């Protein structure tokens, strides 16, 4: 049997030691093992790590864990609403029977909060005002996956350790950086000796801090066209237009400012930057989502099809004068299902005679949101480039814009020659 903890441990501090000690206490009763499911590549908050995986693994083992399992390839591709079910499923399949976490609210409260999300069967948009909302998400997903595995992990929630306030890995990292990469004495008091020694070794070797590939990020944001940016996951129309407006990028803060102007919060900004850094496409994300949907790990209400259904439903309702927010809430709460969603439709073009002569059947048309917020397309023929707005009925415009702004669902478009002239066939991809 395994006792599990899922974490970043960047770095391992005394609060993490408390988690491991609790897991050790449970494991030693029956000769079980303490296993840390340690995020690798990107943190659960979608950012780069301060400390390498190898160093964090060594810290966890030194603090009392028996082994470490790497969780890799998720956090630059998926939000927590999708990565948490995948991680919990992995733990259950590995034989983890008990799970240890920390929170500043009681287990009974966490159970109470989580019931709502289990009932709705959706783990997106857990309100920010809920305490320890990520623990609530884990609790809810664990209950949801009982339907698949007919077993679930038993949760053990211990109080969060506080030393003049909550111990934060972010605060520890910031303090070290601001102290010219020397560990301040007051920070050493928050760390086990083993972590301090490993950190000092890594700092001396020049392995800390890890950072993003900013050169690649700047290049992508400074040079990519609107259509090419739209192929990437987690960039909606507003974000892409703000990226274009904000050029040229030479520092991290200017990128963060751009995403703030587009209405992105810190977590989504980190995810979007990671997607840019790793060139994560929308096709790549929905392929991964589909893989875990087919395994029964992703809740049906979070499926690719549901994202598309919601876009279609909200577009339909807004044409009737209903507010998008109200339509979205109704779709979610009432679990509305819509069959035969159109995944293909055609739109008209506004072309000059010269442009019409350049057109031919089968040319690729790249969709994008123009600077004035309209859906447009770009068509290339040899060295000639045509840019024109797409002419669609109002409901289809709204539907397509919601699909684009889903940040997940890919679209493609092709020039089609008809008896009445050239049109653009738009395809919304669900796989």
UniProtKB/TrEMBL annotation:
Domain Putative cytidyltransferase-related C-terminal region: 165-282
One GO MF term attached to the UniProt entry: catalytic activity
Record-linked Pfam families: CTP_transf_like (PF01467), HIGH_NTase1_ass (PF16581)
InterPro entries membership: Cyt_trans-like (IPR004821), HIGH_NTase1_ass (IPR032266), Rossmann-like_a/b/a_fold (IPR014729)
Entry superkingdom: Archaea
Domain Cytidyltransferase-like: 9-69
NCBIfam families in the cross-refs: cyt_tran_rel (TIGR00125)
UniProt name for this protein: Uncharacterized protein
Organism for this UniProt entry: Methanobrevibacter filiformis
Lineage: Archaea, Methanobacteriati, Methanobacteriota, Methanomada group, Methanobacteria
């Amino acid at each position: 049997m395994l006792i599990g903890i899922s974490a970043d441990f960047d770095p391992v501090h005394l609060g993490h030691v408390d988690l491991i000690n609790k897991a050790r206490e449970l494991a030693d009763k029956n000769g079980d093992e303490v296993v840390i499911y340690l995020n690798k590549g990107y943190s659960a908050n979608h950012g780069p790590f301060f400390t390498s995986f190898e160093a964090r693994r060594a810290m966890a083992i030194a603090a009392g864990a028996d082994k470490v399992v790497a969780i890799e390839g998720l956090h630059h591709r998926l939000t927590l609403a999708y990565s948490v079910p995948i991680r919990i499923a992995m733990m259950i399949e590995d034989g983890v029977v008990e799970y240890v976490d920390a929170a500043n609210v009681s287990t009974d409260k966490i159970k109470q909060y989580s019931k709502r999300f289990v009932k709705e069967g959706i783990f997106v948009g857990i309100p920010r005002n809920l305490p320890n909302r990520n623990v609530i998400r884990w609790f809810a997903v664990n209950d949801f996956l009982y339907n698949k595995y007919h077993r679930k992990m038993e949760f053990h929630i211990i109080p969060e350790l506080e030393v003049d306030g909550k111990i934060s890995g972010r605060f520890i990292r910031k303090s070290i950086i601001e102290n010219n990469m020397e560990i301040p004495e007051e920070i050493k008091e928050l760390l086990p000796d083993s972590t301090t020694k490993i950190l000092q070794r890594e700092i001396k070797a020049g392995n800390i801090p890890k950072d993003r590939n900013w050169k690649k990020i700047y290049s992508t944001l400074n040079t990519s066209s609107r259509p090419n940016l739209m192929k990437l996951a987690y960039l909606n129309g507003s974000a892409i237009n703000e990226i274009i407006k904000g050029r040229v990028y030479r520092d991290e803060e200017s990128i963060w400012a751009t995403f703030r102007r587009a209405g992105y919060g810190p977590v989504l900004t980190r995810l979007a930057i990671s997607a840019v850094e790793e060139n994560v496409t929308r096709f790549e994300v929905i392929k991964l989502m589909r893989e875990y949907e087919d395994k029964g790990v992703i809740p049906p209400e979070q499926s690719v099809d549901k994202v598309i259904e919601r876009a279609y439903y909200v577009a339909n309702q807004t044409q009737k004068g209903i507010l998008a927010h109200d339509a979205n809430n109704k779709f979610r709460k009432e679990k509305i299902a819509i069959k035969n969603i159109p995944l293909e439709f055609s739109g008209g073009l506004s072309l000059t005679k010269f442009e019409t002569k350049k057109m031919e059947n089968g040319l690729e048309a790249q969709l994008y949101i123009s600077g004035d917020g309209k859906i447009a397309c770009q068509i290339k023929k040899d060295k000639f480039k045509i840019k024109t707005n797409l002419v669609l009925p109002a409901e289809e415009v709204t539907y397509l814009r919601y699909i684009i702004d889903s940040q997940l669902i890919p679209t493609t478009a092709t020039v089609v020659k008809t008896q009445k002239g050239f049109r653009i066939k738009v395809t919304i991809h669900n796989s």
